[in-house]
Amino acid sequence: MAARLTVRDLLDLRGKRRFAMLRVATLEEAEAAERAGVERHSVGVLAFRDWLDRVAAGR
Questions:
Q1: CA angle, 26 as apex, 20 and 29 as ends, to 5°?
Q2: Is the separation of the CB atoms in 25 and 45 below 8 Å?
Q3: Cβ atoms within 10 A of the Cβ of 5, count?
Q4: Buried b (16+ CB within 10 A) or exposed e, 25-58
């Protein structure tokens, strides 16, 4: 998998390249999108809360 894009990368590539973006509703969808190479994700509140719960539980 390619290195993650930084904010600087996004600003430098503005107008030079198109990016794939996907709205995800669950953490599993976000993980699958990342494995598939989707460069940008828009994460819903439920997915974010699920992630927070997993981090708090140490998983």
A1: 45
A2: no
A3: 13
A4: eebebbeebeeeebbebebeeebeebeeeeeeee
Rounded CA separation 23/1 (Å): 20
| Model pLDDT for residues 12-55, shown as the tens digit of each residue | 988 998 877 788 888 788 889 888 888 777 877 777 788 788 88
Q: Are 24 and 17 in contact (CB under 8 A)?
A: no
Q: What is the pTM of this model?
A: 0.53
Round to whole Å and give the CA distance between 23 and 9: 21
Residue 3 has phi, psi (to 5 degrees) of -65, 150
